[in-house]
Write a structure and sequence with these properties.
The chain is of the alpha+beta class. About 20% of the residues lie in helices and about 40% in strands.
Length: about 120
């Protein structure tokens, strides 16, 4: 796991593998972007995770920002209520590979791992 500042320890956590992958994806975009992580209604279990790159100018006063070696993860405060303590990991295995969410707030999760319920 990457080293987080004291204020980040209870926010969104990022594994070394996930950090490497998001930095690689960011480089392919050719811009300095941040990664927005959030939740929305939907999915098998009621809520689904969302992730997308966006320009840092889109960060608002209602967002919390987590910095990992100069890479910013952004989450709106409403989503952070559901994601507080989330561990974002990455695996490149052929079966079950991709980004994985480990959410301590989830009471139920979908088999695909992309949705949850509280």
């Amino acid at each position: 796991m990457t080293q987080a500042t004291e204020s980040q320890k209870q926010g969104i956590l990022l594994s070394e593998a996930a950090l490497r992958q998001v930095k690689l994806l960011q480089e392919k975009q050719g811009k300095e972007l941040c990664l927005r992580v959030g939740v929305r209604q939907g999915g098998c279990s009621g809520m689904s995770y969302m992730m997308d790159f966006e320009d840092s100018s889109q960060i608002s006063d209602n967002d919390d920002t987590f910095d990992y070696d100069g890479f910013k993860i952004v989450c709106d405060r409403k989503s952070l209520l559901y994601l507080y303590g989330l561990m974002l990991d990455y695996s490149d295995s052929l079966i079950g590979g991709g980004f994985q969410f480990t959410n301590p707030n989830a009471n139920t999760t979908c088999g695909c791992g992309k949705s949850f319920g509280v």
